[in-house]
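step 4 of 6: structure.
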Amino acid sequence: MQTDHNRIFVESIKRLLRRGAYSHLNKIVNKTHAADLAAVFPSLTVDQQQKLFEMIGEIEQKGALFSELDEDAFLELIEVLEFDEIVRVLESMPTDDAADIIGRLPEEKSQAILEKMQAAESEEIEDLLRYEDDTAGGIMVPDFIALREDVTAREAIESLQKEHLDVEMPFYLYVVDEYGKLVGVSSLRQLVVVPPDTPLKEFMTTDVFSVQTDMDQEEVAKIVARYDILAVPVVDQTNRLVGIVTVDDVIDILRKEATEDILKMAGAGEEFIETKSVLKSTRIRLPWLFASCIGGLLASVIIGHFQTSLSKLAYLAAFIPVIMGMGGNIGIQSSTVVVRGLATGRLHIKDIWSSMYKEISIGFILGAFYGLLVGSVAQLRYGREMLALSVGLAVVCSMTLAALSGSLMPMFFARINIDPAVATGPFVTTAIDIISVFFYFVIATSLLGL
Amino acid sequence: MQTDHNRIFVESIKRLLRRGAYSHLNKIVNKTHAADLAAVFPSLTVDQQQKLFEMIGEIEQKGALFSELDEDAFLELIEVLEFDEIVRVLESMPTDDAADIIGRLPEEKSQAILEKMQAAESEEIEDLLRYEDDTAGGIMVPDFIALREDVTAREAIESLQKEHLDVEMPFYLYVVDEYGKLVGVSSLRQLVVVPPDTPLKEFMTTDVFSVQTDMDQEEVAKIVARYDILAVPVVDQTNRLVGIVTVDDVIDILRKEATEDILKMAGAGEEFIETKSVLKSTRIRLPWLFASCIGGLLASVIIGHFQTSLSKLAYLAAFIPVIMGMGGNIGIQSSTVVVRGLATGRLHIKDIWSSMYKEISIGFILGAFYGLLVGSVAQLRYGREMLALSVGLAVVCSMTLAALSGSLMPMFFARINIDPAVATGPFVTTAIDIISVFFYFVIATSLLGL
């Protein structure tokens, strides 16, 4: 639905541009949400982008567009904009968004922009740029409402009317002591409900969740999601309030991390690459396939080792795919459950033994079921009991060991602090290929006396 | 971090329960967030759960605990609670959460509870239960602030002080006409900033996003995420305001959908099953493996067909795993990129041709690279040019066709309205197994003249 709507929107923008219907376009551009406008830009030529951009009346809307554009689209657009215009737009943006954008620019360009910007604004941005990108400090907004605890509800409301007009999330009022340390929180809601002369300290909540600047952004997102809050205050190591992380940024983080996890498990890079070029996608995927190539070649060495048995009983080869396939698929099931469990916090590395025990049991039960099935098919087809038994046992072995390694490997990687999503994909399938082929031939040659 | 903290918390609760340190426990229970308390419950016996539950002083805290508990844990707990107590707690809860819980209970029990509840409350709940679970109507809260457009800022603030005290998201004030139809939105922030005598219609925003009760919850979540809003109003077919969906529920939906997509692609069910029993997990995974079993058996039929060639040249079998593995892995990469692209709205079924073209190109380039590599290894090992050439060409074929089917299948399933995540996993790997083996043997037997 959403995407259909976008497509129609892109088509009409393009048509209006072709027709030169600028006054009509002007109206549309200034009535459209920046997120929707940003979705159109990648489908336009740079000239067309520049035309649309110049039509935007409010500078805040231009800033919102900067934030909403993909990195590639943004870098393309600013090439054709005037330097002074870029600086003006950045100055009008919320500090965290401006810092994000400047952090992505080439060193040279970002320095030039920071020098040109108003001192106060550029200092705040440089402060933000000191924090790692994916920490609470890197994603926080330095604009928030902080008041002292003896301020009354009326005074607080007055201060909202005079200052703090550009605060992004004006629903929480943070209460700080004389050193700027966080001591409580209140809400705009409470301000209008209590008698006007009540000081903040009498109705503020002192039990306030906060995070430190160096906390990983995923942890921050989990806290906001877990406690259903709209913003979480960020403090430095001395508990001084330095910013807030808002729920809209948390949503972006959660979605991005989920996509990253999915892509990493498949060995298809970290960021969504469908929009990237063929060569870029190829480069990203190439190394992940290397593990499976090595695994496959090792399996070929193992099979080569049993060459004499194979030439005596050629149809032994016929069951290689089903044994590898069954092992591979249950291995992916197990590793996916464990990787996602670790990512969402439902599983922990300390659960390693119970999780292993469970996966081995599941692998063995399913292995017994499918081993019987595949073994029976082998018996019906070739009528050799020992071959059927070998195939059946190989399926049991392969599936049990695949479930085991599928659950063990992500736990192992998490333990040595390697992202389990990125490491698991190629390793699990490679390991299973080798294990499956090895056990199949060992079992078959001994049972069949080859 | 978070999980470590939980574990320590569970241990100390258990220790205090064993010691019978009830006054200490009492303090802890009443100072802990319901989300954290809920995380402890599954590790306790039902008796211990009951003891902790009785210690909770505020009835709202009991309600919050009900909401935070997993379905299984909740059903276990209410078995030991008194019926009247359950009804009292449900009455104190936000209507959407109470409706969620009642909707999950067995028919008999839910009827008894609804009859016992206060009429107004139970009517609201029955209204909510009419909507499908996964639509805007099913997840909305029926408590919101709706005012008429001639109400002034001062009157609006007064009404906040007297009524609307239990509204979950008091940051937006919706403006409705005499028929209850949504005409605008304002914020608590604006109320305190404008002169007190200004009527709402002079400062409200008339450009308000809204969704209809039957919109799918994923679409609702995408809108809230896209436009960075804290709540979206829900209207019926006549544009009458009937509820709002808040950002905290949106976060839960986005996380759940991401987990579901990941698990479905791996054929490991829809819900997170790590916490479920071995037998339950086994039952969920069994059918997904069936596709790969059939695929493997079909591959064995194909190989059986080339049995004579195999007995002449046994080491032909040695390269089956690497050819299948390379195809399987690139197929998973392609299908993952497409499935996730469709889910996040970055790809659309109409992009089918451009996406196919891209994937074939990537598959061919990577296939050429790895085909050369694997072919060279084959040449070094066996010193037969035609074997090396066959293996190399089979890798190119397998990887190109795998990338093609990996991108085509999810698109195809999306087109016929079958969830691509659920259908793609087993089908892609099965198709690739068969394709890889078939092309390998066709190429090898013709090149080697077997």
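step 5 of 6: annotate
 - The radius of gyration of chain A is 30 Å.
 - Chain A has a mean pLDDT of 86.
step 6 of 6: archive
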